[in-house]
Amino acid sequence: MGTRRLSGLQKDVLRLYRDCLRAIKTKPEETQHRFRAFARQEFEKNIVSVKRTDVRAIEYMLRVGRRRMEQYMSPNVRDISFI
């Protein structure tokens, strides 16, 4: 049996997650774990709140996610706090 092929949208979501993890490596080492936990929490939160077939919602979340990643990965942002 072969592996299941991913749709283009699924690949985009995984690419965003990988990009987030790579960008986190540019943050101070002592705060990287908080950024990683935040990214993971955001992706997990959206896994349960958006249906796999809701393409519009997923595309919207991807746009929001990219914008947020750009904001948080600014050199001026050195730490993150979340509840």
Automatic annotation (TrEMBL):
<dbReference type="Pfam" id="PF05347">
    <property type="entry name" value="Complex1_LYR"/>
</dbReference>
<feature type="domain" description="Complex 1 LYR protein">
    <location>
        <begin position="12"/>
        <end position="70"/>
    </location>
</feature>
<protein>
    <recommendedName>
        <fullName>Complex 1 LYR protein domain-containing protein</fullName>
    </recommendedName>
</protein>
<keyword id="KW-0496">Mitochondrion</keyword>
<dbReference type="InterPro" id="IPR008011">
    <property type="entry name" value="Complex1_LYR_dom"/>
</dbReference>
<comment type="similarity">
    <text>Belongs to the complex I LYR family. SDHAF1 subfamily.</text>
</comment>
<keyword id="KW-0143">Chaperone</keyword>
<dbReference type="GO" id="GO:0005759">
    <property type="term" value="C:mitochondrial matrix"/>
</dbReference>
<dbReference type="InterPro" id="IPR045295">
    <property type="entry name" value="Complex1_LYR_SDHAF1_LYRM8"/>
</dbReference>
<dbReference type="GO" id="GO:0034553">
    <property type="term" value="P:mitochondrial respiratory chain complex II assembly"/>
</dbReference>
